[in-house]
Amino acid sequence: MGAMPKALRSCLFQSNGRIRLLLPSLTKALLGGEAKLPEYAGLTLRHALVALDVDEWRKPLRIAGIDTSMWDFDEAGDIEASVRRRDNEMHQQAEAVEHQDISGQVVDLTPRLRVKTIQSENNWKVGMKEMNQIISAIWRPTYRK
């Protein structure tokens, strides 16, 4: 038996406390700078990328993992520049750690601490409230009463 098929769902936690489930095509376009969400211009919002195990009909079975980040929307509602800047900064700091000379008695911890700082500034922990919102958004009934 092969591996369980996977699917991704992108959840944006709005400033009013509600969750918005984004279409995969919109998430890809936002990250690539091909789409904007002007209604979030100037805001920083929490984002969760949810990996799901799905059945052969692509129906979600269970959550396999959640990756969180902060999305910084510019004045036009674009996130691509801030995501690219954050990725570049993480890459530079990771390279500094990798190329650091640790043969001496004194080791500069600044690059390692900077990586930790960047990670803590750009990630958040999913609590029970957010988990319940994610579950409700993903497994929301498709019918209306």
Can you offer a commentary on this structure?
The chain is an alpha+beta fold and 145 residues long. The chain has a domain at 6-79 and 123-138. Helices cover 35% and strands 25% of the residues. The chain contains four helices and four strands, in the order E-E-H-E-E-H-H-H. The chain has helices spanning 24-31, 80-98, 110-122, 128-138, and strands at residues 6-13, 19-22, 44-54, 60-72. The chain has a four-stranded antiparallel β-sheet with strand order 2-1-3-4. A hairpin with a 5-residue loop joins strand 3 (44-54) and strand 4. It starts with 5 loop residues before the first strand and ends in a 7-residue tail after the last helix. The relative contact order is 0.17. The model has no long low-confidence stretch (mean pLDDT 83).
Summarize the model shown.
With 145 residues, this protein is α+β, with helices and mostly antiparallel strands. The chain has four helices and four strands; from the N terminus they run ββαββααα.
SSE layout and pairings?
Blueprint: E1 6-13, E2 19-22, H1 24-31, E3 44-54, E4 60-72, H2 80-98, H3 110-122, H4 128-138
Antiparallel strand pairs: 1-2, 1-3, 3-4
Helix pairs in contact: 2-3
Distance between the termini: 39 Å
Structural class: alpha+beta
Mean pLDDT: 83
Biggest sheet overview: 4 strands, antiparallel
Name the poorly predicted regions.
none
* Cross-sheet strand order for the largest sheet: 2-1-3-4
Helical proportion? 25-40%
Number of helices: 4
Gyration radius, in Å: 19 Å
- Rough shape? globular
Number of beta-strand segments: 4
**How large is the share of residues in beta strands?**
15-25%
The helix-strand sequence is EEHEEHHH
